[in-house]
Amino acid sequence: MIDKRRPTAVLRGLLAAAVLLGPVLLGGPAPARAEGESPTEPPRVELVLDVSGSMRARDIDGRSRISVAQQAFNEVVDALPDETQLGIRVLGATYRGKDKTVGCQDTQQIVPVGRVDRTQAKAAVATLRPTGFTPVGLALRSAAQDLGTGATARRIVLITDGEDTCAPPDPCEVARELAAQGTKLVVDTLGLAPDEKVRRQLVCIANATGGTYTAAQSADELTDRIKQLVDRARDTYTAAPTVVGGTPRCPDAPLLAPGVYTDREQFSEHRWYRVPVRPGEELRASVSIALDRPVNPDYGVLLRATAPDGRELVRGVDAGSGRTDVVSAGLRWSAAADRDDEDTDDGETPSPAPSTADATPTMVCLVVSNAFAPRPGTRATPGMPVELTVDVVASSPPPAGPDLGRGWILLLLLTLAGLVTGLLAGLLTRWWVATWREN
């Protein structure tokens, strides 16, 4: 039995060698490489809990919001994987006065980020009582400092029932600043109150950092969602996308190897990247831009692959995913298909393609363009989050279309179809005439 995995492994090995030999073959720097090695750092998560006065409301399963949050925290701490480093920060938990200047500085870390002492953590959460203001922006900035920096992505899980009452700093702007620093920080938000203004603010915070927003309407929903997010820190964000900077022109663009990359793009901007593709290989690329701020209704994302001389090879327009916070586009392009098109245009018979290892790569320019326009008062900086996925695989044959035949076969089929149609039409006509005369 033939082992189908062997050719794939050989092709991947050749591609890896080609990437490493990029400076020799292409006369330029080696392609940027997405992080693919398993990180040695443990996942780091900080739970940020709103303990402001509004958390006294008893509207979740007949219980107060704070008691539901405390129960969820206890269950999460009990189920916490041993390798996860967890911290807990609160806001609005200590100041009982009415001085807003003082109350808007009220945020503390009650459990430091590290291996969790479960008894100590649950005792610290149990003593919390709803008290003061809601400085969400300051708490997010402080939580990012608590988590520090590292090679892996870190996660903040924000649980709140109200919007920030202390801006500035505006929490959405803080989230954008943290994302723009390239610190690989993801903020997930959980809303405990069915309020539209709160929802919009929490969605904005999550979108700015590539996180998620969830409305928790019961104790079970809150517990299950926090557990999912803590597990996701371990399972899906062990390695963050590689930060790369696109350029205004293709000749200066960074070289990319297969992987996942993140960048920032201004409104109505074009950002260029380069990918080497050899004959017999196929480029597959996709891009997603997060709408982390208000934009006008008419917008779109375009991903194009061009030759270095500017000739367009293929384009992929924005895809309707059903979401309004992320717009994506994708494309596929085969070096062999483009070569066959050129040979056909010249009227010559295509010559056999050289082997992948020996062939000189085609430098493909990828350009990400957007047609976003900000609404009045929307800040243009930092740019919107862009995630670019690049892969180079063995070329796949184009899908076969319907084939009715050629030459005499097609003529015979058409003749038979005409005869059958004429015969049926004649019989129906004679039957109709005979019936009409009888009547």
Automatic annotation (TrEMBL):
Q: Which UniProt keywords apply?
A: Membrane, Transmembrane, Transmembrane helix
SMART domains noted in UniProt: VWA
Q: Does the keyword Transport apply?
A: no
Q: Where is the composition biased (Acidic residues)?
A: 339-348
Q: Which SUPFAM superfamilies match?
A: vWA-like
Give the stretches traversing the membrane: 408-433
Region annotated Disordered sits at 332-359
Domain (VWFA) spans 44-233
Q: Per its UniProt record, what PANTHER family does this chain match?
A: CALCIUM-ACTIVATED CHLORIDE CHANNEL REGULATOR, ZINC FINGER (C3HC4-TYPE RING FINGER) FAMILY PROTEIN
Task: Supply the name of the protein.
Answer: Ca-activated chloride channel family protein
Q: Which organism is it from?
A: Micromonospora olivasterospora
